[in-house]
Design goal:
This protein has a single domain, classed as Alpha-Beta Barrel (TIM Barrel). Helix 4 links the parallel strand 5 and strand 6. The chain is an alpha/beta fold. The longest helix has 16 residues. It contains 11 helices and 15 strands. Bound molecules: (4S)-2,6-dioxohexahydropyrimidine-4-carboxylic acid (DOR) and zinc ion.
């Protein structure tokens, strides 16, 4: 029997780039339509490093919400070499920050102010461990001598593993995992309950060959870059396993078409236009639609110590056409992932 309608608790997105200004206004309605809460990335220009920045950014997000939409942005602090432990802890205790984000300096978009060495922020990490504030990690080494396809695995061995040993009670989310190595590492530490991993829809759906299918496809370029098929299969297996550490984080990361289709194009896939439908497609291909709710709506809140949503949403098996483009402002647009293509599932809203 095939399932034609799926009702699940309203999901949350544990990793989102909403940007600011006209881009925020253009992309926010998509995320807020499907997800009840989202962890908002702080890599703005300039980055949101202090609680006051995050509180102001949260107010701009709430002001940009369409009428009548219920959506809670959960804010993060952008860690730098200069982050003050007390300042950060106050932001967490005051309820402004839900977590702090570690970008190794220059690992990805707007990460130039990121952390240059974990030694420098050891007191900050100690304080975070004490107060139970999660550390969200972009897990790639930045040495240009390390092959781009190896940067996550090398990060796990040389940085993440010693970090967990040095801070045995720190709670950590390894963001947007892309390798079988990451899946195995997270599983090996699952019993501690202190490690989680987000998985994007695009990493469940593409491997590295797709980026070069018939020509170079800049809209499929993101960081960490998609890996070979064996890794994609490991991600699908993990996401659809129902296991507690794995949860939904789209890493939807909009850039304008001009910024993507350039000699040096920006990293990021914009999946928010149809995020849930994309995940449903990946879960159905694996024959595991029954596990979508655990991944999308239960495992994340449990990790963050929040209640799962009391709202419910429906997905229906009928075609959805992904928008060709999303207009940002006159002459500027974002191209959604799978732009113009037909997906098998449709988001049918709150029920
Ligand atoms: O592809 C990506 N885009 N990866 C990141 O880590 C950052 C993001 C962005 O902000 O554009
Ligand atoms: Zn991201």
């Amino acid at each position: 029997m095939t399932l034609d309608r799926l009702v699940i608790r309203r999901p949350d997105d544990w990793h989102v780039h909403l940007r600011d200004g006209a881009m925020l206004k253009a992309v926010l309605p998509f995320t807020a339509r499907q997800f009840g809460r989202a962890i908002i990335m702080p890599n703005l220009k300039p980055p949101a490093t202090h609680a006051a920045d995050a509180a102001a950014y949260r107010a701009r997000i709430l002001a940009a919400l369409p009428e009548g939409v219920r959506f809670t942005p959960l804010m993060t602090a952008y860690l730098t070499d200069g982050t003050d432990a007390e300042d950060l802890a106050r932001g967490f205790e005051d309820g402004v920050f839900t977590a702090a984000k570690l970008y190794p300096a220059n690992a990805t978009t707007n990460s130039a102010h990121g952390v240059t060495s974990l030694d420098r922020i050891a007191p900050v990490l100690e304080r975070m461990a004490e107060i139970g504030m999660p550390l969200l990690i972009h897990g790639e080494v930045t040495e240009q001598s390390v092959d781009i396809f190896d940067r996550e695995a090398v990060f796990i061995d040389t940085i993440l593993s010693p970090l967990l040993d040095r801070h045995p009670t720190l709670r950590v989310v390894l963001e947007h995992v892309t390798t079988a190595d990451a899946v195995a590492f997270v599983r090996a530490h699952a019993a501690s309950g202190r490690i989680g991993a987000t998985i994007t829809a695009h990493h469940l759906l593409i491997n590295r060959s797709h980026i070069f299918q018939g020509g170079i496809r800049p809209h499929l370029y993101c960081l960490p870059i998609a890996k070979r098929e064996t890794h994609r299969l490991a991600l699908v297996e993990a996401a659809t396993s129902g296991e507690a550490p794995f949860f939904l984080g789209t890493d939807t990361a909009p850039h304008t078409v001009t910024a993507k289709e350039a000699a040096c194009g920006c990293a990021g896939c914009f999946t928010a236009a149809n995020a849930l439908e994309l995940y449903a497609e990946a879960f159905e291909d694996a024959g595991r639609l029954d596990q979508l709710e655990a991944f999308a709506s239960l495992n994340g809140p449990r990790f963050y110590g929040l209640p799962p949503s009391e709202e419910r949403v429906a997905l229906e098996r009928r075609p959805t056409v992904v928008p060709d483009v999303v207009l940002v402002s006159e002459g500027d647009a974002v191209l959604p992932f799978r732009s113009g293509e037909t997906l098998h599932w449709s988001f049918a809203g709150l029920v």
